[in-house]
Write a structure and sequence with these properties.
By secondary structure, the chain is an alpha/beta fold. The chain has ten helices and eight strands.
């Protein structure tokens, strides 16, 4: 077992229902396509920071009869993932509460260790990667993907969304995270001692009416009701009046038929030695 000390990192988004709703739209295809060709039947997979489990369940379908374990620090998220597995009838996926810095698994327990949008929220990403490496078998894969907030772009121009992005960066960095995590992945992997790596990048794009409506609506709620909102106010970065204005900016963007939003991501496949 690991002797890595646990850290009390703060998750900027929290696990409000609007966050879990947004994260439930993530699939292995739209969020882990770079990893899918390497997943084989019978593989044992650990999905760190699994959220409501939508990616984990897709992995389970790919590797069946192999096992997928989704790990989250939040019991709320674990319960949501367990419900999703039950509804989907996926029996080879389980979900547990745990700490990425101190995984309660033996050395070399998994063929693949995956983390999506996790490292950007941590105060010590190399330490987390070393722990992920510990539980990955020699020759196995550590796979990570993170957004790059500074590289996000949208149309039309919006002072409200510009302010939202600035505010998010302030809050995330005050929490000890690095919201531009995507561009740091290679450096973090090298700092963790991982040398056999394959970097790549991909994007999310929200441009159809349905995509704009869902992305804009969930962020309008998140910016006023989620942990991000309470952290912004508690840290003195914004007040409730401004947060309501930012929610309005998200709704305005979502209602524009020309609206477009893209999020670049960095990705890494790291072969454990």
């Amino acid at each position: 077992m690991s002797e890595t000390p646990s850290r009390n990192d703060t998750y900027t988004h929290g696990h409000h229902s609007s966050v879990l709703r947004s994260h439930s739209a993530r699939t292995a295809q739209n969020s882990a396509a770079y990893l899918l060709p390497a997943l084989s039947t019978g593989a044992r997979v650990l999905d760190v920071g699994c959220g409501p489990g939508s990616i984990s369940l897709d992995f389970a379908r790919h590797v069946a009869p192999g096992q997928v374990i989704g790990l989250e620090r939040s019991q709320t998220a674990v319960a949501a993932a367990q419900r999703a597995a039950q509804v989907a009838g996926v029996a080879n996926a389980g979900f547990v509460v745990g700490d990425v810095y101190a995984l309660e698994f033996e050395d070399a327990s998994f063929d693949v260790v995956h983390a999506h949008q996790v490292l950007q929220h941590l105060s010590d990403p190399p330490a987390a990667l070393r722990e992920m490496r510990r539980v990955c078998r020699p020759g196995g894969l550590i796979a990570v993907r993170d957004a790059d907030y500074s590289a996000m772009s949208w149309y039309p121009a919006s002072a409200g969304l510009t302010r939202w992005l600035d505010l998010y960066m302030q809050v995330a960095r005050a929490n000890g995270g690095e919201p531009d995590g995507g561009r740091h992945l290679l450096a973090w992997a090298h700092a963790a001692g991982l040398q056999h790596v394959q970097p790549s990048a991909s994007v999310w794009c929200y441009a159809t009416p349905e995509e704009r409506a869902e992305w804009g609506q969930t962020w309008a709620i998140r910016v006023t009701e989620s942990a991000f909102a309470s952290q912004a106010v508690a840290g003195g970065f914004a007040d409730p009046v401004e947060l309501e204005e930012l929610a309005g900016a998200w709704r305005d963007w979502a209602s524009d038929p020309d609206g477009w939003f893209t999020i670049p991501h960095g990705e890494l496949l790291c072969w454990a030695q």
